[in-house]
Structure formats: structure tokens, C-alpha cells
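Sample 1 of the test manifest.
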Amino acid sequence: MLAFTIRRILVSIPILILSTFLVFLLVAWGADPLSDFKSKNPPPSPAEVAAREHALGLDQGLLAQYWNWIRNLLVHGDFGPSVQGAAFDINAELGRRTWVTFRLVICSIIIALFLAVVVGVITAVKQYSVTDYAATLVGFFFLSLPVFWFAILLKIWATDLNNSLGTNIKTLGPPGGQWGGIGNWAGYLVLPTITLALSSYATWARFQRASMLDVLNSDYMRLARAKGLSPRRVMVRHGLRTALIPMTTQVTLDVAAIMGGTVITEQIFQWQGLGTMFLNGIRTQDTNAVLAWLLISATLVIVFNLVADLLYAVLDPRIRLS
Amino acid sequence: MGVSRRTLALQTGAIAAAVALAGSACSSGGSSGKSSGSSGSVQGSSTAGRNTVNSATVKQGGKITWTIEKTVQAWNPLTSAGNTFDYAQVTNGIYPDVYVPQPDYSLVLNTDLVNGDPVVTNATASTPQKIVYTIQPNAKWSDGTPVSADDFIYLWQAQNGSNPNVDAASTTGYSAIASVVGSNNGKTVTVTFKQDQPFSDWKSLFTSLLPSHIAKQHGDVAASFTWLDANPPTVSAGPFVIAPGGVSADKSLIKTIRNAQYYGKAAALDEVDFRAITDSAQEPTALANGEVDGIYPQPQLDLVNRVKSINGVDYHINQGLVWEHIDLNLRNSAFGGPKDPDQTAPAKVALRQAMFTAFDRLGLLNRTVKQFDSQAAVLNNRMVVPGQPGYQDNVTQYYPPSGDLNKAKQLLTSAGYTGVGTALVDPTGKPVPPFVMRYTVGNAIRQDTCNLFAQTMKQLGITVNVASTDNLGKTLTQADAQHAYDIVVFAWVDTPFPNSANQPIYTTAVQGTPMSNYGYYSNANVDKWLADATVNSDEKARENDLNQADAQVTKDAYTLPLYQKPTMIAYKNNLGNVRDNPTQIGPTYNIQQWGIKS
């Protein structure tokens, strides 16, 4: 297992570097970080432009720029300067924003997972029942909902609720990621969590249902029932436990995707996380900020893929990674 | 404040609509109203009346949260990054200006800071222009340090353009200054311009006064200018100061509190917080939910309707200083050519004139911005907007607002073009090539503008292919004749200082260095008039210069002004003295007067 893990990590490093190189080229070719500066009116003098280019390292060739970036990152842990403003420190922002996004994602995953497992199991056990059809309908409804539309509806409903019942549901994220107090904590989390959770729930509930159906129809389940075990014990100890194995790996794999896919949710609810950092980086043609976001996203994908593999091996004794 | 003199509007998002100005030549209107939960009716307000909108007696104390649309990533309003409208909303109450632009575009002396009008000595053949400011004796920073000539000197040193390592947003005006000298214990400031460079827009100088005594603690001018950009203001010479620990880690919430050391009339509110909402579509909900007390978004139809539905909120829509226009690239051989004189060929002038004559600008407005602003109107001047001194209609006589297709066809036929209305052929027998017209990707109204323009051109026999650009700046700043556009629609942002701002846009440019004259327009008279406007000490003469230049640009059919984009403000109706200021300073220009109505 240890050898497998080390091998996977070592293989991941060149993949990461290659991905950063490709994205660096794409961003560098497609964007000029000094575009806004150059198009001021009156325009800056050539000397001023040259000074900015030098400060950002843009006066060097693309390969040299990339080499400097990767060297600074590996040697000094520095993601480089930003064009978004002197107060924008990419390193500091990454750390803080990753935590902001991670909290949001974890909360939504917990809710989505809980709902998905419960609904998945029930609909599998009661296959082709009214409950199954209703849950399927609701699941597909959530799956097909445009996130931006649903999120805005949620905000409007929450505002009406606040005004009529005096609740304290927030439509904006916590400034600085600080939500102070349990009341505020819930108020900030409820809307974006629901938004993120429902789309994941819909997918996972279908997955759990299919997984559970596979298990329910297996021979060992018939054997368990034939042995006279109680239906509850058969379902929970033998059925659910086994059916959760593929679900676990699926959720683990999805964590990275959800982390990278919070752009819309963060934008609508104004959470200053990784998603908004990516958007702002694109808007301002901030190469270093976009690269930093990519590196975090790519790392998360690789790490969670590794975790999924390891978890699968741990949970399913039939798998041997050695 | 000190936000950009006249900057290119590079809005790349789904910035929506825009509006225009008021109908009459000397006043622009606007829309205002109360949301459905309040009594009141929608009414227009003239430019002159803007300064007193929502005037009220307010009580002392209270706290409000105002919306900005960016997290604050730069704190020095005079750097290229810090020179951002939303950042300035925060620093307006902290770094004072000598002259404060008012909602009606006039300039009012900041008498809290300066004692009496500056004494101006106009330039003569042998003596340079000179301005003497007298700082109020009691003017001081919040740490007790007097506001002095050193602060003025620091601004000049940082923005005079002599050091390319200083990240100054603009050097306009400051580069013409020969010296800034303090006397009378630092309370008198004497500004002397270079002998041959008087500066008519001198009232634009010395905005966002920075604390030189703090700057001195952080290296030379370049280093300290950057330090002031990277760090929230530690002191204030305005009515508000950043609260201790008042900047959230993500800079999405900035808390400012009343400056107890302020030497002028104290602010009414105890605290004004600034909350960043980076997606304007989310602002009305935040306002309805009580998370913010006021918003200042770019109006769009959906957004305006949403605001109208919020209880207890007043809103106003005005025509602002941002205006949309269509530009032709005169390096295109059909419009001009590689050399400046190419663009004066009669047939090429006729083609350009015909294209602008045919276009129905009013129709464009009816289909777009008039959907939510009935006051929207066609703009007919490039140098100033209605309500600014000297505005006059220099466009209609050539290019009627509703367009004139027959007149356009006649222009082409008279110039020797054939195939008018089918496939246009120039007088030499060469087919007029298809043109590429670009708009900023995601900007629906600009896309509509292009499509309507293309449809009209088709009726003249001209093919216009509409294409987007995701980098307007790059598209415009063509380095050589291999231009990236033939026709383009974008916006300029005017300021109350049109004399210096217009010169780089229409003055003959050197190939490869277009300044802001991206289409390489060239006319010697225009060069002369605009140059004179920057130095002439007589206001009427300057206005005359600008109008002559504008009329000539109209005749030469280089750009076609379309309409002013609207500004929109919405706020809780218990707030007094909160009002729109459509100049670059924005609504917080009078933040010390804001308060809860008594």
C-alpha cells in the first residue's frame, strides 16, 4: 500500500507540472495582464509600460516566464505577483480561500450524502413503488435545475422569509470567512449549502439506488435472508455496508470536482472562495492568480483520486493494490 | 477620489444597458421613483437639480452599509490599480480633494481643506502659470499631523511622470508643473507650471491628498506610493477613518468610522461600512434583505424591475459621463489608408459619412435602454455631455438621430459609388470590402448595436461582419496597419475636465503609438483646437475649441456618438442626503452629510 501511494504521488508530480505548463501557455497567449493599464487614456508612456512589464517579468520570453514562475513556486513557495492590486497577495488568498470553499463544500457534501444514502436505499428497497417514482422525479428535477436560477430563487424566498418571520438567512457570504456566532453560521451556510447539495444529492441518490439494487439481488444477500437474519440486519450490515463502498469512492472523486465547480454558487452568494478568485483572475487577466487556482484544483483532483483508490482498497478487501 | 481622468470603459461582463441623455441641449434628465412599498411617483430630474436630490435633515449617529462592486485590492486611488471607482467610494471619505465634482458636473472647492479660492496667475509670454493654495490652519491628519504643502509636493512628485517606477494612474497636469513649494509653515502651496505648459484643467489637480508623513516612513516616492497602495489607510484627513481591524481578510467588508479628529463639520453617521458584491445581479436581493442599505449598480431591465419591487427603497436613474460610440478604423483602405492624408479623399469621406447618416441611433435606443429609462436620448457631442458647460449639438445636422437612408444613398451616389443598396463598388471600380465590427463579448447591448448597424449597412450594399472581442484593449491598441477591427463600438468615460481629456483621443497619432486615437484620425485643425483647449485660460475660448473640434470630427465621420450610459442608485428611504453623483467621484462625494432622516 505504501509503495502504491508513493508511486502514485511520484507519477502525479510530472502531471501537475505539465498541466501548469499547458495552462500557463494558454493564459499567457490569451491574455495580457497589462491590457487595462496599456489602454488607459491618456496612455502610459513606453517607459512606464516597460517598468510594469519588468516588474511582472513580462519582458522575458514565455519559457523564461514559466521557468521563473515554477522556480519561485518550488523554491520559495511564491505564486508570483498579481495585477489585481498591491493588496492582493496570491499566496495568502489561496490559503484563506481554499479554507472558505472547503468548508462550504464539506457542509454540502455531508447533507447531500446523507440524503442520497437514505433516499437511495429506500428507493432501491421499494423499487418501482410510488416512493421510488416520486424520488426519481424529484432527483431528476434537481439534476436538471440550472444552479444559477435555483440559487436566485432560494435567495428571493429567503428574503421573503426573513421579512415575514424575522429569520436571519443571509444572501451574501461571510466577510473574511468569519461568521461569528452559531446564528450567523447557520444563516450564512443555509442557502449555498442547499444549492450545492441538491445537485450532488440527485446524482448520488441515483448512484446509491443502483448500487443498492446490485447488492440486494446478490447471492450472499439471499443467503443472509435464508439464514434467518432479521430484514434490518440484512439490509444494514450486509446490504448497505457493501453498497456504500462504490459510493464512498464516487463521493471522494466528486469532492475535487465540487471544489472546482463552486464558481457559480460562490458568485451568486458572494463567498470569497476559490471560485471567485478564479473568476476575478480571468476578468483581470491575472495569469498568476489563474495558475494558482489551477494548481490547487489539479492537486485536489490528483489527491482525491489517490484517496479514492486507497479508500477502495481499504473498504473492499478483495482489492489488493500491491 | 482622483479616479481616472478619462478612461476607456473596458467592461467585459454582461454589462447591460445604457442610456442616454436628456433631450434638450443644456440639460439632461433622469428617472427616479419610489419602490412599490412607498408612496410617490416617478419623476425626472434635471442636471441642475441633481445636487439637491434627497436633501434632508439627518440625525447624528447611526450606521449604514453601502455596496461596492469589487473587493478592495488597492488602497492608493492614484495608482493604476487603485484608480478604481469602487475603491474610491471607500477612500473618498478618507483622502480629501481640493475640488469636489458635484452631481451636476460642477466643481466645488473643499473649504474644509482649503481656505478660499486658489489664487491663479495666468501664463504670459514671459511668466508661467502659477496657482497658490492656502491650506486651512486647522486641517490635520487623524494622527494630529497638520495637512501641509508636503502632502501637495508628494502628490506632484509621484505623478509628474519623471520616474517610470512610480505606478501613477495618470500624469495629466502634474507633468506640466515645474515646482511645488511650501511656505508659511507649510500652509501655503505655490504651484508653478512650466513656461510653455499652462494647464487649463488645473482644478483636476490635487485629488486624493495622501499623507506624506506616512509615505516618508516607507522609502522613496516609488516605494511609498506602492506601500500606500498595498496597505489600508492608517490615517485620514477626511470625515471618516478606517476602523481598527475594519478590513476583513478578503477585503469584502471595509468598516469606516467617523474621524474624531476631522477639522471640518463632523460626519452625521457613526459608521459607514462598505460591502463588496461583485455580481451586480445580486445587489437588489441584498438590499431587500437588509444586508446593505444602498447600491449603485449598472442598470439593466431586470435589475431595475427588481429594485422597483423592493419595499422602502428610493431609486434614481441618471445619464452619466460614460457614453457609447461607434468608431471607424481609418487605417482601413476603404475608410482611409496607411497614411494620414488617405483619410481625406472625398470618396472615403463620403463613404464614412453615408454609413453614419444611415444609422438609426434613436431606433437603437428604443430597442435597448429606453426599455427601462424613458429619458434616454441620442448623444450629439463627443467632448462633453449635456449639462456640462459648452454642450451643443454638433452631430444632428450631419447624422439625424433616426438615420436617413435616402440621404446616405445620395451621398454615395454623388461620390461616384455604384451598386448602392446591392453590392457597393467604389468610384475606381473596386468593390467595397466587407468590414469587421467588434463588440465586447458578453455585452448584449453592444452586440445589438453591431447587428443593427450591420443591417443598416446592408441596405447601403455594405457587408459588415459582426465579431466579438474578449480583450477590447488589445483589439484597439493595434501596433501596426494589420488592424484588428474596422468598426468598433465601445465607451469613453468623460470627466468634469474635458479640456485635457479629449486631446489624446482625437489628436494625430504616430503610427504604432496611437495614444487613445485608436483609429488614427488626423486633422490639423482639430490638433490645434484641442491643444489650445488644454492651455487657454479663457473658459469660453476652451468651449469654443472643443466644439470646433467636435464639429470637425463629425464632418470627417470618424466616430459616431450614440448615447450616455445610465447610472442608477437605490437606497433605503430612511437615508438622507444620499444621492447619485454620476461623475468619477461617485455617490460618496458627500459621505459626511449622509445620515438617518430625523
